[in-house]
Design goal:
Layout: H1 2-24, H2 30-38, E1 51-52, E2 64-67, E3 72-75, E4 80-82, H3 84-91, H4 96-103
Antiparallel strand pairs: 1-2, 2-3, 3-4
Helix pairs in contact: 2-4, 3-4
C-alpha cells in the first residue's frame, strides 16, 4: 500500500520531469542532449561488483545495478532506469539544462 503510493509519486515526478525536459530543450541543442546521454554512467556512479545503493528508495544493501548495454543505473525494486542525465537530476537535484551542460562539457 505505502509502496504503491511511493511508486505513483515517483512515476508522477518522472512524468513531470519528462514534461519539464520537453519545455527546457530550447536551452540546449539536440547534439548536446545526445552527447550527455552517451556520457558513461559508471563515471557518475560507483559500482561495486556491478551494484550500487539506490537513491530512489531506502537501500541498505546495493540493489541497483549497472545496465551496461543501455548505459543506465537500473533499480529493479522501483522498476526504474536512470541514464546519465537522470542520475544528475534525481540523485543530485540538478535541472535538465544544468545536467546536460555538465555532461556535454559546457
Amino acid at each position: 500500500p505505502s509502496h504503491d503510493k511511493k511508486r505513483i509519486k515517483m512515476e508522477s515526478n518522472h512524468l513531470k520531469g519528462w514534461v519539464d525536459r520537453q519545455n527546457d530543450r530550447t536551452a540546449v541543442t539536440d547534439d548536446e542532449i545526445a552527447e550527455a546521454r552517451r556520457y558513461p554512467v559508471d563515471r557518475l556512479v560507483e559500482f561495486v561488483r556491478g551494484k550500487t545503493t539506490a537513491w530512489c528508495h531506502e537501500d541498505r544493501n546495493p540493489s541497483a545495478y549497472h545496465g551496461t548495454r543501455t548505459n543506465t543505473v537500473v533499480c529493479p525494486v522501483c522498476d526504474l532506469k536512470f541514464g546519465p542525465i537522470d542520475v544528475l537530476m534525481k540523485r543530485d537535484g540538478m535541472s535538465f539544462i544544468d545536467a546536460v551542460k555538465s555532461l556535454a562539457g559546457r
